[in-house]
Amino acid sequence: MRAARFLCSRETPDWTHQMNTLDFLDKQSLRDDIPEFAPGDTLDVHVKVIEGSKERVQVFKGVVIRRQGGGIRETFTVRKVSFGVGVERTFPVHSPTISKIDVVTRGDVRRAKLYYLRDLRGKAAKIKEKR
User: Fold this and answer.
1) What is the pTM assigned to this prediction?
2) How far apart are CA 111 and CA 66, in angstroms?
3) How far apart are the first and last CA of the chain?
4) Half-sphere exposure of 57 (CA within 13 A, CB side)
């Protein structure tokens, strides 16, 4: 059996130095121009699309159905109905391909994940606006 190694108060394990370095690198690539938004909010996500040598901005407008993760790995999913077909797209919050995010309306919901919207049609899929 291996004996447990006890650390003195002066000693720090090797992995803490690695974690500090990773946290430092993550902090450098975090964006500070992201507005506050939550599930239920309607967003305009301006996404940079590269086609050949040209670059243009495409707007994806929809309702946030989830926001998950934290730090550099944080993502959010936006859902919209396009020509009668539900379309969902997941974006990293701190992605350089997102040029900007506009909050159109604030939604009044009681859940953190709005997966139930996938099964609803028409007026039932509407979200009340926050007052």
Assistant:
1) 0.78
2) 9
3) 64
4) 10
Where along the chain do its domains lie? 37-118
Closest CA relative to residue 38, chosen from 116, 107, 129, 95: 107
Helix, strand, coil percentages, rounded to 5, for the chain: 20, 40, 40
Per-residue pLDDT tens digits for 80-92? 999 989 999 999 9
Q: Yes or no: say if 35 and 110 are a contact pair by the CB < 8 Å rule.
A: no
Q: Which fold has domain 37-118?
A: SH3 type barrels. (2.30.30)
Instruction: Check if the beta carbon of residue 61 is closer than 8 Å to that of residue 43.
Output: yes
d(CA 18, CA 15): 5
